[in-house]
Write a structure and sequence with these properties.
seven-stranded antiparallel beta sheet
């Protein structure tokens, strides 16, 4: 597999991290000064997912796809290989977000699975590790706020 992954032990319970992920995505999804605009996120298998990332110089990156799986407080799987009407589009990845309890804290793992080695290399060159790491740190900050 052509996978990239980050993991964090977040100092908040799974319920708070889940709420942060599902209800506060615009606060953590992309590293600042970028911001995420949540257009639609149907958290059910076959649900539509549309997020627009806005850069500080007016850049826009539209992420549209479908939700493949949702296991509450455990796992969310999405892909950009299809639109909500099951129309194929140029795939980049399948995203898997996993949440596991570790003594009242949350082991959060976010994985990007790519179709090709070239797509994986492109994602690495875009700054996957730093960008997704910062986003995970931002997710933790939101989860800690929600848990308090």
């Amino acid at each position: 597999m052509h996978e990239l992954s980050i993991t964090r032990l977040i100092d908040a319970p799974v319920a708070a991290v889940w709420r942060a992920w599902t209800g506060h995505l615009s606060e953590w999804f992309c590293p600042k000064p970028w911001r995420a605009e949540l257009i639609e996120q149907e958290l059910k298998a076959g649900g539509r997912s549309v997020i627009v990332m806005h850069g500080p110089a007016g850049e826009e990156n539209r992420l549209e796809g479908v939700v493949l799986e949702v296991v509450p407080q455990r796992r969310i799987v999405t892909t950009d290989a299809l639109t909500a009407d099951w129309m194929p589009q140029g795939p980049f990845m399948v995203r898997v977000d996993e949440f596991a309890d570790e003594d009242g804290r949350t082991r959060y793992t976010a994985t990007a699975r790519h179709w090709t080695a070239e797509a994986k290399a492109q994602h690495e060159a875009m700054g996957f590790e730093a960008g997704w790491g910062i986003s995970a740190d931002q997710l933790e900050a939101v989860a800690k706020r929600l848990a308090s």
